[in-house]
# Entry
Amino acid sequence: MATKPHFGPPSFQNQTLALHL
# Structure
């Protein structure tokens, strides 16, 4: 899930992951 960014830069994925957590 956090291995490869589905869309946008990795930083954006980190924010999305944080929202899920």
